[in-house]
Amino acid sequence: MFVSASATLTAGAAGRYATALFEIAKDAGIIAAVEADLDSLQGALNESADLQSVMASPIYSRDEQAAVLAAITKKMGLGPEVSNTVALMAANRRLFVLQSACR
Questions:
Q1: pLDDT greater at residue 88 or residue 5
Q2: CATH code at position 75
Q3: What are phi and psi of 12, to 5 degrees?
Q4: Structural domain of 13
Q5: Res 56: pLDDT
Q6: How many domains are there within the chain?
Q7: With bands split at pLDDT 50, 70 and 90, how would you rate the model's confidence at 57?
Q8: Quick one: pLDDT at residue 11?
Q9: Contact 95, 69 (CB under 8 A)
Q10: Residue 85 contacts by C-beta under 8 Å, 6 or more apart in sequence?
Q11: What is the torsion angle, in degrees rounded to the nearest 10, for the CA atoms of residue 56, residue 85, residue 19 and residue 15?
């Protein structure tokens, strides 16, 4: 039962962030750019065990996680729509759904 509830929470949260980001991109007419940014971010997440550790480990504070993700999105040159969404996810301690939201 717990696993099912956890999976539902993850899917629901990821879906809400993804939907909000899609609506922002659609309104701004930049769906392709946001999609490219999400693909780049997904690639970075897939390639870096250290980044996955920072996102998942409770030993890092919310501020530390936010700082790491802000530096990464800036270095990658991601647009403000994706960068701000990632920052919001970090502030809300929802980085555990970031990979699901990128898909």
A1: 88
A2: 1.10.520.20
A3: -65, -45
A4: 2-102
A5: 86
A6: 1
A7: confident
A8: 64
A9: yes
A10: 17, 20, 21, 101
A11: 10
